[in-house]
Amino acid sequence: MGTEPPEEPTEPDLVTPGEGEPDIGDIPPAGGKLPAPHCDYKRVYTPKANHGRKHKGVGATQSNYNGTTRTARSTFISEVTGEVGVSVTAGLSTSVDAMIGKIEAKYDVELSAKLTAKLGNNVAVDTPPKTTTNAKFGVWRLKNTGVSYVIYSNCQGSAKKNITSYSPMKVGWHLWES
To answer: How far apart are CA 107 and CA 142, in angstroms?
Structure first.
């Protein structure tokens, strides 16, 4: 159990799987003509760095102060249901599903496009004397950075974009003491 509340990252815009795929076509660079060699047109995403799990809360933080001299049992129950999806910065040239697949393969993890944290889930923990235990229910997501670009049929590439994404992994609690 930590001693800090969950980090609230500044998140990129939420993207729905299958959306956010720009129609950039098979266009050569400005003023250029197709050279003799031919490449297959493809949208590329390469994961570069795993920044660990980040918690996205659903509902309010719950707290319980133990003012006694003995350890007490604190039980927390989720009070709302909420859906948490993939969040990704602008410029992703491939689909969200393709990006998730690349991240899963690189880090050997299981990710989802979205997960639902449901009402009524509970957790019970020991709260030490003169301590507050805090709990926030939600979804744990993997923060990842990577690079996205397009390779055109003339073998030229688009500008590479640095992409930050948060992909859902598991539903659960973030607990900390203060």
So the answer is: 10
Spatial CA neighbour of 178 closest among 143, 135, 138: 135
Is the CB of residue 82 less than 8 Å from the CB of residue 68? no
Looking at residue 22, its pLDDT comes to: 47
Spatial distance between the Cα atoms of 63 and 177, rounded to a whole number of angstroms: 9
How far is residue 119 from each of residues 35, 83, 84, 101, 112, measured CA to CA in Å? 59, 11, 14, 29, 20
Q: Which of 113, 100, 85 is nearest to 144 (CA)?
A: 100
29 or 7: which carries more pLDDT confidence?
7
| 75: its two tokens | 């039980």
Q: Which two tokens mark 123?
A: 């957790």
Task: Tell me: pLDDT of 32 over 90.
Answer: no
136-152 residue pLDDT tens: 999 999 999 999 999 99
How far is residue 6 from each of residues 14, 81, 94, 97, measured CA to CA in Å?
20, 19, 30, 27
